[in-house]
Each structure stands twice: as C-alpha cells, then as structure tokens.
Amino acid sequence: QEEYLRKPEWLKIKLNTNESYKGLKKLMREKRLHTVCEEAKCPNIHECWAERKTATFMILGDVCTRACRFCAVKTGLPNELDWEEPERLAESVQVMGLKHVVITAVARDDLRDGGAAVFAETVRQVRKMNPGTSIEVLPSDMGGKEENVKTLIDAKPDIFNHNIETIRRLTPRVRARAKYDRTLNVLRISKQLNPSIPTKSSLMIGLGETKEEIIELMDDLRDADVDIMTIGQYLQPTKSHLKIKKYWSPEEFAELKEIALSKGFKHCEAGPLVRSSYHADEQVNAAKAN
Ligand code: SF4
Ligand code: SF4
User: Fold this and answer.
1) How far away, in angstroms, is 175 Cα from ligand 2 center?
2) ipTM score of the complex?
3) Where are the domains of the chain?
C-alpha cells in the first residue's frame, strides 16, 4: 500500500457546474475543440469561464508526442493537422465573449515546424474576429528552433508564455523530452525577436524541489528576460502520474511571490491553485503598464 499525503483544507473546493457551464461544454463538442480547463479538470473553471471571461484552448489535437510525467494529456500518434481549427476556435471565443484567451498546444515533434504555422494562423483568426480580446500563446518548445518561434511572434500575440514547469535538477525526471536550457532559450529568443511582447513562464511546485532551487530558477528566468512568472501547487492527475512530495502552504507561496517580485519580475501570481492561465487577464495589463 503506497502512502499519499492528505489533501490540505485550502485545496478542497467545490466544482460548480451550472447551466451556462453546461452550454459552453456543449459548444466545445460541437466545434470539436479541446480546453485545458476541462481536460485538466481545473478547479478554477467556473471563475474563469463565467466571471473572468477567460479560457485555455489546446490546439493541434488532443494527443501529444511527448509524455511528461505530471501531465494528463494522452500520448501517441498525433492527429491530422486541421486547418479549419483556427476559425472554429475564433468563433468560439466570440460566442463565449472572452476578454482573454490562452492558446496552448500539444507538442508536435512529428512536424518540422512543431505546429507553428497553424498556431500563428489561430492567433490571426482570433484577432480578426475578436479585436478586443487579448491573446496569450503557450506553445511547446517547437524543437527550440528560432524560425518556429518567429512564426508565432510574427502573429503578434499579447503575451508569449512558455513553461519551465520544474527546477533544473528535476527536469529529466518530470519532462523527459524537454530540456531546461532549451526552454530558457525559447523565452530568450522570443524576447529578442520582439521586446514589446511580454514573456511569461510557469512553475509547479510540490515535486521535491527546495526553496534554494526555486530561487535559482527565478534567476535563470530573469536572465532570459522573462517578465511574468506564475507558481502553483502540483496536483497528481491520476495515480500513475508523479506523486506529490509536498503541499506548499499559502504562506510559503506568498513568500515566494515576494522573492520573485524582488528579482524584478513585473508580475507574479503564486498560490496553491494558481495555474499558468490563472488571472492571466490581469497579467497582460500589469506587464503592459510597466
Ligand atoms: Fe482554464 Fe486556466 Fe482558468 Fe483553469 S485557470 S479554468 S485552465 S483558464
Ligand atoms: Fe503534456 Fe505538454 Fe508534456 Fe505534452 S509536452 S505531455 S501536453 S506537458
């Protein structure tokens, strides 16, 4: 019998599944779209969809060519590229009346451009149909190639987000097909290509990292000129995923946020339920105001 840590009170929240939420779920099926909000069973879904008018879409299929050990996305042979997905997504953003949209994608290591062309087209279509909506892109490392980052940056998203996920020491164990330095490099390249687009990266903690290692990671991100950082608690999606080593307390999160701000991040969101896309609408404004 394996032992699991008991879930602390601050993580016990009720899922709200009211009528408007059901309608939106139906819209996703009709438009054949995938959201991280649903697939990751994100605890913030009601607040995000209904109140803050934000959502995170996952494009380029729902099957990933990688298999990170914290992630619930299916691994296997990828889907056919769907060039009509950008338009369907843009229409859904309009129907949902979103103020901020996060567009992420599975890693497409089978494609030369890592999916950058469809990704950029999605940004353009969303912009065309929803000129008032801010757009945040959260791509995979797209092979770490500058030309792919450029394809996406040229579509002019409002935020370029690329997740570091975990500290340097744990990267090979947590996301075997990614590389810590390649992630930093993708962030650095995007900043160099267009310094006016804020960059952002997210860390999940609770996998056995120390405070010192987290601080080292903050320095690495600042060194790559990253503007915004988010820190959240890792939650094990199923029993076959990596086990939680520690629940960081709300006080510890508050301390990490202070440290991040002292390092020069323009904005930091840190807390047990913070996800890469949590309160992302505020982050755009914070980064632009600076
Ligand atoms: Fe979706 Fe992100 Fe909000 Fe969760 S925090 S519901 S994934 S937009
Ligand atoms: Fe999940 Fe992204 Fe890793 Fe694929 S690359 S397994 S979608 S975290």
Assistant:
1) 8
2) 0.96
3) 31-289
Give pLDDT tens digits for 237-247: 889 999 999 99
Pocket probe for ligand 1: among 37, 58, 96, the residue whose CB has the most ligand atoms within 8 Å is 37
pLDDT digit string, tens, across residues 109-150: 999 999 999 999 999 999 999 999 999 999 999 999 999 999
Cβ neighbours for 25, distance < 8 A, ≥ 6 positions apart? 38
Q: Is the CB of 66 under 6 A from ligand 2?
A: yes
Ligand sitting nearest the alpha carbon of 241? 2
Query: Under 8 Å CB-to-CB from 284, ≥6 apart: which residues?
Result: 100, 134, 136, 158, 159, 198
Q: How far apart are CA 100 and CA 85, in angstroms?
A: 18
CA-based nearest residue to 102, from 53, 153, 30: 53
**Residues linked to residue 271 through DSSP beta bridges, in sequence order:** 232
Q: What spacing in Å lies between the alpha carbon of 77 and ligand 1's midpoint?
A: 26
The domain covering 31-289 belongs, at the CATH homologous superfamily level, to Aldolase class I (3.20.20.70)
Check pLDDT > 70 for residue 289: no
pLDDT in tens, 216-268: 999 999 999 999 999 999 998 889 999 999 999 999 999 999 999 999 999 99
